Amino acid sequence: MTPASPQLHSQTDSDLDHSIAHGTNRVQRARTYTIFNGPSSYITHPETRQMHRLRRSSHDEKSQHPRRFLIDVEETEKTLLAQEDSDHNFQITVLDAGPKIMKLGSADSQGYKKYDIRGTYMLSNLLQELALAKDYHRKHIVIDESRLNEHPVNRLSRLIRNHFWLGLTRKIDAEGLEIICKDPKNRSKNRRPRIYVPYGDQLAFEYYNEVASTRPHLDLEVVRLPEDITPQYVKTLNTQPGILSLGLTKNRFPSFASGSNPGLVESYSGVPFIVPGGRFNEMYGWDSYFETLGLLADHRVEIGKHMVDNFLYQIHHYGKILNANRSYYLTRSQPPFLTDMALQVYFKLPASTSAERTANNEWLRKAILYSIKEYYTVWMSLPRYDEKTGLSKYHPTGIGMPPETESTHFHHIIKPWAEKYNVTIKEFEDLYSNDKVCVPELDRYFTHDRAVRESGHDTTYRLEKRCADLATVDLNSLLCKY
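Given the sequence above, the corresponding structure tokens read:
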């Protein structure tokens, strides 16, 4: 995909939503100050003929045209934070004690003539625009005043569409591994970054070994998974967690090496995916469905299709759509949404030619076949399927303590058993994790805990300590739709 360019240039008011909200004393806030319209403190909207209270007037010089400001990014950010960010959290909110007013130079006067920018909303938007400009290594920018008082919904939608999707995109390839290998949940002694590759993906195994060889600074360890991934095997990975590979795509581009006739050079890149937040680097299960709906709403159909492709890769190589593609999630899925996810993408795929329609149908056929496989081998099989009722439940097959939690997360559960065995909590955790003690009650507790995480509702009292025994209406409704 072509990265979206930063939208930091001039924008006119016609780009914004200027509709006035109906109701008593409500008016659309297009400015932080209002032009006084005669002796009355009300205006009549020409379409609705309803009266709306005007906001307090200001002493600013009035302009017939939207103002544009010429801004030195670094200097303005420094001044803005020093003046307005009184609690030093790099945000400007109503809790800050600054004067909530700042002068900016106009672009028409090359910054000489200055005008006031007032209020928390405009100043916080200015700070965000400066941060975006720095991300794109801009030294100077020109911003319309309308950009700083843009309608909040329009602003958020535009930022998601033009900036945030790109910031949330990840790929597991030579470039992407620079970021993805970092795992804040890795509390093991061995912090070496590693990638686990499915037994049947020889291409990926060779590719990542080449990456490890050509980029020694990564210190990347490439591990091939066994053909049969058992819960016992997954438990052994708790002390050496790593990312799980996803799809690779082949790229061909011309080469003119040594002045010869152009030939084709092949390379590989990771199939991109969206993460649910900036602190994540892995592809999550049901988060990806809702992310895909957002991508389609913003006409980013191609990466929505890639999201489905990565799920098909997971079903093919890992047996299920994973909670996320980390080693400690190998035994755990999440709520099933793949069929609707694939259909929503299919409806948006380009289909202007016969060849495109044929390719789209074949792609959908593949997605449905993998969905059928997941439906029967995961949700209609033990232990998730209850033969007595014919219903399904969240019931992952992992054993032991989930390793991705905070270090003290289970201390209140472990403490009584540590006291019973007259050892410290840490000593008991080691005993339990290495099968030196047998505690069926704890085994059952951690089965339920994993089931709650598989449900996506981690953590909730509705499911705590009983999730693996419940055939919930939400899961079985999703499977009915599946």
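Residues 1-59 have pLDDT under 50 and may be disordered. Try to locate this feature in the token string yourself.
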